[in-house]
Amino acid sequence: MAKRFQYKKAAIRDFSAKINRRTGLAEFRLPHPNRDWLGGMALILAIVLTYTPVWWAGFIWDDAAHVTPVGMRSMEGLRRIWFYPGATQQYYPLIHSIFWVEHRLWGDAPLAYHLVNIVLFSCSALLLLKILRRL
Question: What's the pTM?
């Protein structure tokens, strides 16, 4: 019984009150945690639907230049990615190391690379949504 009472007390403390300027009465609102999840799920759904053409696409534009080349697929290649700036098209060792690990996991399958990008983009969009909600 004591736990139930403490829960109700905490719930009452979470009320937010706002004075309606037109009526002069206080409007009480409970927090809506489901609204955040609903917005996040709608955002992820929009991203997945937007990027559906990528599921059937191969490597496009300059993807082939960024995916780990044949000469860089060994441990020596990983060392070259980090210590020789001219070993890759651009010197971004962390990105090319991630490509190296991805190649170890699923080879040259473009779908896997595209799905990882969709997941990373979704995480970035959710983080931005969370930041904007706090403003």
Answer: 0.63
